């Protein structure tokens, strides 16, 4: 099946008891057993729930994976992957990570004796210098947040394979519509489903998609044992959201391209980050591994201090000043005080997250209204 058909149908069958075409919200924590141990495949909803099972089938199909696991948040999904590690193990990851991932690695897992190397991954060969006998995992994000660097997934996957390292790609920014890391050699794809997959800013959820059966069994064990699994109502909302993923993503990309074009050369704009520009340092890699360039754009305000940046951020009327991304509505975010506040100043400035940086999640509204709003805010 092709993408749109999978988005609408994968994992979902008419309900066996009633014929309901839409997957019902199985709002139950437990399931009747005919005699002890004799049940219909469901025992307790922390481990399995039919609405979630349908969603997990759909999530797996979208990433061309055999297995999908839904978690109660993106961080819950990340946590499960890190729990595969033991004290003394080492992880190589990027220096421009989602703030919450950086916080979890440095403030939680570092306390359990796990060592993280945060490095610039624009040249994948760099990771070889950090691989040693203790290295177990590589964790990457592409495009990165918020400076939209592109990491060559296929190249990193080749090095990871050579050394027997588990490679996870946080594919939140691209969504499965634009990029499928498993097809490029990654072992696990992680999503903050909260973003493009959910698509309507009304659910917090995460997911892992993967092919290896043994790894799936380990992660499913952690999922049930540690319990960060989503409820049936949220699973239903995401199944519903995914049905328009392909339509929304096309609109995000079209509006994103127009806004990137508008910002390029605007007198108030300093640095501009969007992988669709031919002069983006990894444009060629982006073109190869992505189907389009998405609706995430970051830029700095030329010669603006923190107060000036706040003033511009507060002037938007169609874009909402808010954290998060990937919903149908356009958002503007100030990474330094919002999404990236948990990253120390020196670390974040090294990665280009400056006081005068703004990040746009371009929604699917009429482009004329978005451009007029930007023009007014920048003016
Ligand atoms: C939001 C986000 C996360 C965390 O997901 P939650 O659903 O908020 O827990 C992880 N990675 C990226 C790139 C994100 O944007």
From TrEMBL:
It holds the Pfam family Cys_Met_Meta_PP. It is an enzyme of class 2 (transferase). One of its GO terms (biological process) is transsulfuration. The keyword Transferase applies. Its cofactor is pyridoxal 5'-phosphate. Residues 1-20 are annotated as: Disordered. Keywords: Pyridoxal phosphate, Transferase. One of its GO terms (molecular function) is pyridoxal phosphate binding. The keyword Transferase applies. One of its GO terms (cellular component) is cytoplasm. Belongs to the trans-sulfuration enzymes family. This is Cystathionine gamma-synthase. It comes from Hufsiella ginkgonis.
